[in-house]
Each structure stands twice: as structure tokens, then as C-alpha cells.
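quick one, 139 residues, struct below
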Amino acid sequence: QRVRAKNVLCEMGTQLTRLKENLLQTHMWAAKTWVGVRHLRAEEKLHRMNMLAGLTPLQLAAKMGHLDAFKRLLRWHHTKVAWEWGEKRSYVIDLTEIDDPKTNVDVLNICCRIDARTATQQMISSDFMCGFIWELFGQ
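---
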């Protein structure tokens, strides 16, 4: 019985050693995977930052799908009064950031991209623009 107990203890020690090795390997794998995931996340963030770099506030609002910010920027920073006659006004909207043939990052290209957000794609719908035009000219 002593020999048997000794063999059982020896087997348990061997199993415990294997378990420790497996645990260590699993821990090392998890650590490597975590570092890889963190590295991927950092690369994704860097890629996103590079994609957003160089965009104007109007283009950034369009790309992120912030409709209210886009309307506000378009109304207050890109719309100017051309002339006034009593209560009548004529407005001019600067189109350089909206439709620019020189660059490929104008608002129309951003809104029409296949990978654009749903809110961004809604900016080219007639509901959005009619509402904006009514707010701007109908009041």
C-alpha cells in the first residue's frame, strides 16, 4: 500500500507539474495574444487618426455623421448674406469643402462612399437638405 500511495503521489506530482506547464504556456499565449490585440487596436486607432487627419470641421462632421454639427457649421461658417432688401435676403453658400473637384475628400464624396455611416449617407437624402433649406431660407 505504501508503494501504491507513493506511486499515486508521484503521479499526482507529475500531473501537477504538467498542469503548471500548461498553465504557464496558456498564460504566455494569453499574454502574447493580449499584446497582439493591443497592437492591433493601436494600429486601428492610428489608421482612424490618419483617415481623419487633414479634414476640415465640416468634412469631419459629415464623416462622423453628426447631422446637427454639420448643419450648424454649414449655416454659421459657410453661409453668407449676399444682399438684403428690407426683410428679403439672398444667401451664398461656399461650396469649396462641399464639392471640390481638386480633392477627393469633399463632403459629397464622403457622403457617397460605400463604407460611410448610415447617418452620413442620410445627408444626401432630400429630407435632410429640404429641412436645412427650410431652416435657412423659409424662416
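The helical segments are 2-52, 57-64, 67-77, 107-112, 118-121, 126-138.
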